[in-house]
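Form 12-C: Joint structure prediction
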Amino acid sequence: MFKKILIANRGEIALRILRACKELGIATVAVHSTADADAMHVRLAEESVCIGPPSARESYLNIPSLLAACEITGADAVHPGYGFLAENARFAEILADHNIHFIGPKAEHIRIMGDKIEAKKTAQALGIPVVPGSDGGITADDEAYRVAAEIGFPVLVKAAAGGGGRGMKVALTREDLSHALSAARTEALAAFGDDSVYLEKYLATPRHIEVQVLGDGRGHAIHLGERDCSLQRRHQKVWEEAPSPVISPEQRAEIGETCAKAMRDLKYLGVGTIEFLYENSRFYFIEMNTRIQVEHPVTEMVTGIDLINEQIRVAAGEPLTLQQSDIVMEGHAIECRVNAEHPATFRPSPGKITHYHVPGGLGIRVDSNAYQGYVIPPTYDSLVGKLIVHGKTRDECLRRLRRALDEFVVDGIDTTLPLFRTLVRTRDIAEGRYDIHWLEHFLSEGEGKGKVG
Ligand code: ADP
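Section 2 - Result
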């Protein structure tokens, strides 16, 4: 097992990783920018190293600084968390060159899944269902017309190097296609320096459903069921639940086994998430994330498995002792991402938390690095913390979530708590009837308009 782990991240995930390390008896090194000197995980870690100024490029993304911090402290492994360098294959390779373990998958798997066209080809070859579309990139327009005629309109033009929903254009009809192609190419070139695009069938009202996988890198892999992350705003997840309200145990077992088998064939190491769009009872692969996800706690709450503990142990070369039959999903869990943002305009609201009180009681978990007096810096993402609630049934979970949201106090800054207090009392949510467009519609035209905040 590792002796000392350097946590190359900040915020709630740095604290979450630190907690897992403490329980495993592994010493921790916190690294921080000058803006994060007062962070909770910095206080709780055995050692800490300042790695640069506030700008992420000069601190959390600064590979030479991180290597120096490993050297100074003698850390033998690095946990990258999510974001920053978590899906940077080069970083994993550089660490390996310095005899430091990267707590994540093999660099080749990070690289494949980081390229959207490569990822889709690999998924298809592994037997995972994908969205119908072009076989790889589209270079000539007449090829795009041929593929679109085959799969039928509407189609989506997507950037090969895409991320964050950029370089994506819908063509509803044949007349729109040429414009969609050129607009997607221009946006992709500006955002990623690469204008390669590919074509996919556009799904009109899908849900976002993702499968959690865990592998030991030697051909043993399991799945831990799905999460439903359909409630999104601008492609950012807002509310996640496990299990999905629309997936039957048979469907779960089937898609889960498809994913687990793919990971066995790939000899995948560590935790990963295979993301799907789900429409008319069918799954369509969109991407695989080769890291721990923000929403991993809902899976932990229903399975009782500590995913970061498992991730660290397999990275250290320990065998995965869990078998598929050990994974039993009990009850229902929901996560709300509480952001430092105005609940109606979503304008970021960094600043000092003057009063802070977290809810408690059975089935309540708050993963947050905030505390009374903590100042949220304006430099990074606006996540204040995650409220995760578990109940024996979805209905109990919703009732508990209503109560917990009413107890949660974060004063001094704006937060999205009032949005969640509205959502948890909304009929479609209570009935589990929502797709990936529901929230945007609710906020701009539906009952939520002008009501929240
Ligand atoms: P990115 O890497 O830019 O986030 P993804 O492929 O993960 O791109 O897609 C982001 C979002 O775009 C999805 O969550 C979904 O909302 C939408 N999307 C992607 N592909 C399709 C599709 N074929 N049909 C409809 N919506 C899609």
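Section 3 - Comments
The chain has a mean pLDDT of 96. The pocket of adenosine-5'-diphosphate is lined by residues 131, 156, 162-165, 200-203, 208, 235, 277, 286-287, 436 (CB under 6 Å).
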